[in-house]
Amino acid sequence: MNMIADTMTANMDNKPEPQVNLDIEYTETVGAYTCDDAKISTRDVNVFYDTNQAIHDVSLDVGRNEVIALIGPSGCGKSTFLRCLNRMNDTIDICRVQGKILLDGENIYSKKQDPVLLRARVGMVFQKPNPFPKSIYDNVAYGPRIHGLTKNKAELDDLVEDALVKAGLFDEVKDRLHGPGTGLSGGQQQRLCIARTIAVQPEVILMDEPASALDPIATAKIEELINELRKNYTIVIVTHSMQQAARVSQRTAYFHMGRLIEVGDTNKIFTNPKHELTEKYITGRFG
Amino acid sequence: MSISALLLLLAFLAAFGFLIGRQKIHLQYKQQSEKPRITTLPKYFGYVAGLVSLIPALLVLFVLHVAETPWINHQISEVIASEGLQTDLDLDLYLNDIKNANSEAEVAALSHDKQVIHGHYQRITKTAEWGKSAVVISLAVLLGLFALKRINTETRARLIFEKIIEWILLAAASIAIMTTVGIVLSVLFESMRFFGDVPVMDFMFGTEWSPQTAIRADQVGSSAAFGAVPLFVGTMLISVIALMVSVPLGLMSAIYLSEYASRSVRAVAKPVLEILAGIPTVVYGFFAALTVAPFIRDLGEGLGLSVASESALAAGLVMGIMIIPFVSSLADDVMSAVPQALREGSLGLGATRSETIVKVLIPAALPGIVGGVLLAASRAIGETMIVVMAAGLAANLTVNPLEAVTTVTVQIVTLLTGDQEFDSAKTLAAFALGLMLFVTTLVLNMVALYVVRKYREQYE
Amino acid sequence: MNKPINNTDQVKLSLKKRYFKEKVFKSAGLLAIGIAFMFLLVLLTDIITKAMPAFSQTQVNLTVSIDADELGLKDDSSREDFMAADFRQPIRQALRDRFPEATKRKVKKELYTLVSIGAEYQLRDAVLENPALLGQSVTMDFIADDDVDAVIKGAIDRTLPESDRRVKDQKLGWILEMEASGEVHKTFNWLFFSAGDSREPELAGIKGAILGSLYTLLVTLALSFPVAVAAAIYLEEFAPKNRFIDFIEININNLAAVPSIVFGLLGLAVFINFFSMPRSAPLVGGIVLSLMTLPTIIIASRSAIKAVPPSLREAALGLGASKMQTVFHHVLPAALPGILTGTIIGMAQALGETAPLLMIGMVAFIVDIPQSIGDPSTVLPIQVFLWADAPERGFLEKTSAAILVLLVFLIAMNAVAIRLRKKFEKKW
What we know:
The complex is a heterotrimer of chains A (287), B (460) and C (428).
Chain A: H1 2-14, H2 22-25, E1 38-49, E2 52-63, E3 67-71, H3 78-84, E4 95-103, E5 106-107, H4 115-121, E6 122-125, H5 136-147, H6 153-166, H7 170-173, H8 186-199, E7 204-208, H9 216-229, E8 234-238, H10 242-248, E9 251-256, E10 259-265, H11 266-271, H12 276-282
Parallel strand pairs in A: 3-8, 3-9, 6-7, 7-8
Antiparallel strand pairs in A: 1-2, 1-4, 4-5, 9-10
Helix pairs in contact in A: 5-6, 5-8, 6-8, 8-9
Chain B: H1 3-31, H2 42-83, H3 91-100, H4 104-109, H5 112-150, H6 157-197, H7 200-205, E1 209-210, E2 225-226, H8 229-260, H9 263-278, H10 281-302, H11 312-337, H12 340-348, H13 353-382, H14 385-390, H15 408-416, H16 425-458
Antiparallel strand pairs in B: 1-2
Helix pairs in contact in B: 1-2, 1-5, 2-5, 2-6, 6-16, 8-11, 8-13, 9-11, 10-11, 11-13, 12-13, 13-16, 15-16
Chain C: H1 8-51, E1 56-65, H2 68-71, H3 79-84, H4 88-98, H5 105-112, H6 119-129, E2 137-143, H7 146-152, H8 169-180, E3 184-188, H9 191-194, H10 207-238, H11 243-255, H12 260-274, H13 282-306, H14 310-318, H15 323-352, H16 355-359, H17 380-389, H18 394-424
Antiparallel strand pairs in C: 1-2, 1-3
Helix pairs in contact in C: 1-18, 10-13, 10-15, 10-17, 12-13, 13-15, 14-15, 15-18, 17-18
């Protein structure tokens, strides 16, 4: 894969010591990858694009109502891993997923599992804001409508308003609910996408670098929002920014070249990383 | 001197200019005591000399060649006038016999008057031909000599040569404009003549179409009617049927192929659609006329309906099938221009594929799809062979798809094939219809291309 | 708004219906493709089954005595004498000898229609080739009349009552008798590929149309390829950004969508009436088709040129090559496979085009095989059109066969284009 190749060259460029040989130093995930009350638990997940392996034997639990941040250099597989959690990888023809991924104890990759229902339970917010070319209202109402979550217009209105309020966007857009969603600023668009996801009332929200395309003020708002949402949802967030991970998450998992290197409480990982690679990444030696 | 001989001679002169020019510079380079490190290759000087002698000569030759026939006609009519001969007929017709008489036997067969004119004609043609050759050749020689004299090692020959080539390239690109202008002028000019005979209003809003002008004025039913409404309605009827077949089928195939089909299905289905697109329209016409139309007629009879054997339905159906690949490839293009992020956004909320397609992709791609449908409509309106072979000739003003209707293109073909004079209202009517056709499709294309372009910009 | 956060049960409620809709939608897509497939299948089978009989021809075996005196010929007769001689008589005599019971004038007339009117020329050519046959009796195969052909091939149902049948009982009797004795038999129809058009179905061939198409395509290629490539190079590499260039681009895009029949009107008004070029000639047809295919080739060439990476241009420019040298030495060769593919597709389009050629008189009935681009001729699609219109039943199979030949040419051209694309497909 190109992404992996990029990472490799990037590593070589930035490493002070040229010999960080992953295969030698890597043994298994450092830190406790399990938790007591797991909402999602994954075991020995391998992901292949055609013949290239993008994820190697990742096992990781996500606790109920916790925010877990996935960090690591670009191309390390954290986004790929995230997309496994609601089977978004199904949309890529050449992608194969092996291993067990359990949501509330059910294997989401089992034949019986329905990806549509799964995605209604595990929502996703993408890297770049991707509002539909519809009105703000229709963007938020889209999920409830297709899933039949409301019985009438009034309920739908309430639900839309509720989602927009929760996403902290309502006050900004209440006068133009029927204006186009694409007319909002980047940060507003991303919050609209979050509102859209909340409106489906999922159990888990996956966020793929939700603030990477935004300016600092918009980013701050999103982070605030994530802290707010934690009360009701389980959130898995992929991020490039270690500060962001530190600000929003309770646990952090560090990925490197498709492997989960280290996982643990966020403050512990950032103050006292156990693995050499984690330490190098956190101290900015590469990545 | 014949045109081909003249062209050959010009080419020869140009080649000669090239050789001399190259040689001249080659020698000059040799004589230089201090050789510059970088020089322009001698061949570029040769090219310049050759092209300078060739291109103006070719242009002049073209102009003279175009002007030749009118000039000859003008000269000969003056001769006719001065000889005091009567030509009540059209000059072109009168001259036809004379021009066609090439052998002695044929000349002898002409009337006395015509024999006299024939002599003059021969003389005038010879003058024209030699004059033309003399002008062109002397121009080529003079310009070639001029160029050869002017070039020296200081000449920036490569730049001049490249500029000439660039102009030639530009001329090639401008042929598109010339073609459009040619179409507009030829159609407009003949239409004007037609509208001199038949009022525009009668043509646009008349409901009776019977262009068979009788040969003699006193014959019964000699008055021709040129009300084109039945043709417009017939064209619309068949096009609408075609669109009703092709738009849903084309759209659904594009959706299936791009959103559902596995790679192996796509690998088979796409070429099949391409084959469908590559089949000549005359084949569709044959199939429509000999297989589909009788089938539909029999089917209709079985149901107790009376179906014309040249029903609009048969032509429209087959035309619709023909346009399917066109619609599906356009739809495929616009659908794939919708960003993947929108698909993922919808799927990520738990929408099924069909919900994503119907509620997100199609609305997002709608302008592009509309543009595609407009292009398909323009295609259907301008389609000729299927309707010529499978639709009727008689102008029925009806919207019943089971009856036979005729279309604009059918009438253009009927009016212009067969032997008739070029000046009759009947043939000119074909150009008026052509004008309508051109304008309609032009507007549809312009709107469609504009809509599609705007649509693409939205996602770029 | 204190709904339960868990939506699973609610979503589940509607799932069944939604999946049903999904299935319906997906099947609709499959159905659409299926219909297109079916249509293609039906069309091809229909044409192939109709065309197959055209490739065989019924021959009637007759023993003809060639009496030199009756023909007025001697061993040293000139070619003209042979041409003028009436070779119909020996054949008629042979038929009368074969069926002596035909004595009435009307019956005899019917009898003579067992063989094609081309039979006398067959006999004449045989004698011309071998004058020793004069005064001898020869047994040879003659082309059967199209009705006989139809009966033998089963196109005319022998079991129908006489009143509904084109071939009446008497003639049918002769045919059956000769069929039983092996005097009529089928051979491969070489004539179809070596003859020009004819009013008689059994004598008609497509050689004239194939050559006409060939000449027309040569003219088209010679004109459109250089002009289109030059235009594409200019627009991609040299054109400044201004109104005029925009106008050219709009024109090209529009011309690509102008109905082909309009190009025919242009050809008629400009080339035939204004420039007095010959009617029905491949020259004019080629010019008209080249104007029509120009946009296609220009658009394909432009995308081929666009696909050449800038690094190649920069490399050449960095060595001090001029823009023109860069384009002609590096960009154009790299883009050539793409350009050629586009050209072949354009040519295939031109080969199948009919309507504009109708306008410039290529629809005339032409028996002679064209010898140059100035001769009157017709092209394959128009031959199809003409034969499809002909009332004689025998032309039905000829039409289908001509379509088959046309399709074979088109498939061959497209196969070459696809191969070319595959072979030179480069990942820049």
